[in-house]
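Reproducibility note. Readers wishing to regenerate the assembly model reported in the main text can use the exact inputs given here. Chain order matters: entities are listed in the order in which they were concatenated for prediction.
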Amino acid sequence: MSKGFPLLSGVDLVIDRATLTIVTGANGAGKTSLLRLLGGLDALTSGEGRVAGIDLLDGDRRLLRRRVGWLGHEGSFYADLSARENLEFAARALERPVGEVAAALERVGLAHRASTTTKRLSAGQRRRLGIAWLLVRRPELWLLDEPYASLDDAGRVFFDGLLADVLAGGATVVLSAHDALRSSDLESCEVRMVGGRVSAP
Amino acid sequence: MSKGFPLLSGVDLVIDRATLTIVTGANGAGKTSLLRLLGGLDALTSGEGRVAGIDLLDGDRRLLRRRVGWLGHEGSFYADLSARENLEFAARALERPVGEVAAALERVGLAHRASTTTKRLSAGQRRRLGIAWLLVRRPELWLLDEPYASLDDAGRVFFDGLLADVLAGGATVVLSAHDALRSSDLESCEVRMVGGRVSAP
Amino acid sequence: MIRIAWLVATKDLRIEARSRVLLWQVLPFGVIALLLSGLALGPTRAGTSTLGPGLFYLVTLFVALLMINRSQALENASGTRASVATLGLDPAGVFLGKALALTIELWVTGVVLLAGSVLVLHTDLLHSLQALPSILVTLAALSAAGTLYGALTQGGDGPATLLPVLTLPAFAPLLIAGERSFSAALQGGALWQWWVIVVVAFAAYTAVGVLLYGVLEES
Amino acid sequence: MIRIAWLVATKDLRIEARSRVLLWQVLPFGVIALLLSGLALGPTRAGTSTLGPGLFYLVTLFVALLMINRSQALENASGTRASVATLGLDPAGVFLGKALALTIELWVTGVVLLAGSVLVLHTDLLHSLQALPSILVTLAALSAAGTLYGALTQGGDGPATLLPVLTLPAFAPLLIAGERSFSAALQGGALWQWWVIVVVAFAAYTAVGVLLYGVLEES
Amino acid sequence: MIKLSQRLLGPLTLLLLALTFWLGLWVTPPDAVQGDLVRLLYVHPPIAWVALYVSFGTATIASCLYLWQRTRSMTMDRIAYCSMEISVVFIALTLITGSIWGRPTWGVWWAWDARLTSTAILGVFALAYLALRRANDDPTQRARRGAVFAILTAINVPIIHFSVLWWKTLHQGASVLTSTGQLNVHGSMLWTMLIGFVGFTLLFFWLLRERYRLEVKRDRLVASTVDEALAQRRREGV
Ligand code: HEM
Ligand SMILES: Nc1ncnc2c1ncn2[C@@H]1O[C@H](COP(=O)(O)OP(=O)(O)OP(=O)(O)O)[C@@H](O)[C@H]1O
Ligand SMILES: Nc1ncnc2c1ncn2[C@@H]1O[C@H](COP(=O)(O)OP(=O)(O)OP(=O)(O)O)[C@@H](O)[C@H]1O
Ligand SMILES: [Mg+2]
Ligand SMILES: [Mg+2]
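Running the prediction on these inputs yields the following structure tokens for the assembly.
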């Protein structure tokens, strides 16, 4: 609910563990809003919902957020820290070994930009850094808002490979997209949104 | 040149009037930087260049900017004004009839969001508003940085149609893209960038 | 130029009216700051009206900084800059427009703060009203200077905090002249020297702004 | 909690060190403001050191507002919030960390401004040094309060200008207490009452922050 | 019983206030020193008492109850908000009646006196609370932030109280303010004052109730527009 405007207007949806769900829909249909809701980033004003066993209405949303990995429209970090420092911050906060950071940067192809200030990275590089952050985070539920936007072709292929890995590892992925997946061997379930409502689960 | 880092490292390029040029390249190759340079938004530090007859090194870049339409990664307006107010501002500034605003909004499919504050629009809607702004602007040189990102399918088809119109009207279009054009009947010339350099003009 | 100035000014004022920041945040801040300045200087001294003009201008200055800051932040939101740059607006018009909007906002603030200082600091009402013209001119000069310096600090890192450093020295003479002529008005006289200073400053900043704003934007 | 606090504090201080805003922008601003305050209150009065403590705290307060603002802006850059929210950091730790970083920054500022007021306002050096402990505690209390109020203004429209409105009334007693104990030190005495106030305020704000910061973040 | 007292709240308030004014203006004698000015005694202290203690107290308690998980409800939030709003009015009235009194007595409208200063600061707190609420659209966010701010204010009240008090006693002698009346309060004056206190306190609760009802109505109005908006949203893009 944003200034009296209902962002979502009727969502009835069950997502299984370790599956890939793709949320599609026209611009302004409510995809981003749905993902934010699932991640506990926005509050539910009415209705009911449970994610990872936590009630969205009056559960502890902080616990939920801790289990969620978020990739937003804007690659989102401390703009004044370098790529590496941002990841190290996440690793330390979650008590992950700091050694993983270099590996994650290498994997998304940012090793040569590790010490560039985040705000100077290009759009696609910022998106890649967001993916590296998720690699360090290793969340149970991946919420990806248009992950393909501004990635180059190599990046998209890499990303599909990553998704396969993640799903095999038992995590759940929900992503919004306008572009189709590259690799067709990923099994996915499509959710179509229209006017804030899920039209075809 | 950003903090001692050369953004572009060797660009040798001639673009004809009323043509469509597509700049491609990996993330961080320098596409955005090239477009900003062409639009007079960044300064040229060495080398030479002329756009629309204006010298990039010591010409009046403001005159250049006036003839250029820019669509950036972020739909970019006064976030506190509504969609309509933003466009009206542009129309008044350029002494275009204010009546065109409603038509432009209608055309990009934002008529029902005309009075929503820009910062509350969804990513795709902001991109559409950016296109509407260009429709009101009617520039000679269109510089579009990843225009397809976060547009839905209908939006992309619409956008290709728009491009055809624009080119027929005699304007020049330079766009950066990772996605291919939908419609194949647009004649285009591809410029490939690698490491700040144009590799295949 | 005038057309663009008007366009820019109405745009700024509309955004201001929309967000109500002036009404709900800046004005209360000013009044509180006035109260606090009185407090900080101790009960006995604050009560004496000789400090009134100084405190009034000090607070106005801080408020003005906040508002110059906001006025520039509007233009520098991520991305807004590129779009607006391609409108190729006449820089002199932009300068005048932004300065005009700022002047109007500062005038509103100034009148409220003057009322506040009459109530809180016991400056004399009638004499304060006599000082009003000089205050209005000083504030207009402040707006012109602020818009100019605001543009100077655009784009760099942390403009919000760089701005005051650049502006404060420029404001010093204005502040002194304003304070002196206010004090003079309180004592029943009027000093033409101070008028000369603020009017000259106003004219100079406006002229420089009209001529050089384009150079600042360019870079 | 302590681990998170340390992590957050080092992160904030690193960003500060990187951008040099404190060194190049906030400190010069403070010193100039001190100078101007002296000027605004008239040349004759500024010389008398009795106004020193009041002006010192007034300027410190405005500088503190700038820095609280910056400290919060770091967390609220578009998008940063969502990413950091999904780290699920312990809110008490975040509060302590941010307050700690702010305290250290304010201490640096405070010491520089104290030196400035000795130079510019002729407050007595030796007595100023005696006032230093009470200044440091007051600044720590100010940081705790500022972090808390900063979190209150996150996200809404125009947080930069709402912050002063919320904080100024809360800072008033701190200001009074700080000013009084500074003045007392200048006169060679030390007043335990003012110590009680700043220490109680510091403890109260820290306790409330540790307990309630999570409630604020939640929303 | 509750229903009856609810129905009587309004009339009783009016009755007591009318009685106060009648007693204050016509029955009680003018003061030897202050003359007719002393009649402000029946209005100013009760208003000040409501402004500071009754309304701030209500707001603080309601905010605490809101923050406590088990009693969290929109009711508490509304009570806190409404009483803070009424507090602004009463503080303004305190300042106005006080100034009117102060002008002839002290020769100035305002002085940096302990009680005046602390009243002003509290008024600013109440205003800041309202500003904070306006700046947040989201109802839960608004409620939480408001509650935390109200509690911070409550902590500040004693701090302000002592700081201003000590400050005062250090610098000046006893205030003009407390040295009036009190000792030579006449029998009828005492009664009038007492009735005034009860009357203005009831007035507060009466206003609170009416304001609360208005707020509920407004929320309902908002809810109905939400239903409408919801329907409209669903129609979108179909
Ligand atoms: C703007 C000016 C004034 C303000 C803000 C103000 C404020 C207050 C406040 C807040 C109280 C309640 C104190 C409490 O119940 O603990 C109070 C009580 C009182 N005030 Fe004022 N006042 C002002 C001017 C005056 C003046 C000028 C007089 C008389 C000369 C006066 C006489 C009293 C008396 C007699 C009481 C009640 C006795 C007491 O509780 O001490 N006030 N005032
Ligand atoms: N205050 C408001 N008034 C009117 N409409 C609003 C308001 N706030 C948000 N909206 C609308 O709510 C919708 C937000 O949807 P959301 O961002 O979830 O879309 P999306 O599906 O992610 O779209 P995209 O594909 O463009 O990213 C938009 O249609 C936006 O215009
Ligand atoms: N100070 C700096 N130090 C190191 N590298 C820098 C610096 N400033 C910019 N860069 C690099 O310059 C490049 C900017 O390129 P640009 O934004 O034009 O890329 P792009 O082709 O638009 O990429 P994308 O497809 O991701 O949008 C990036 O590789 C960025 O990392
Ligand atoms: Mg979206
Ligand atoms: Mg780019």
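We highlight two features of this model. The CA atoms of residues 106 and 176 of chain E lie 8 Å apart. The domain at 16-210 of chain E is CATH 1.20.120 (Four Helix Bundle (Hemerythrin (Met), subunit A)).
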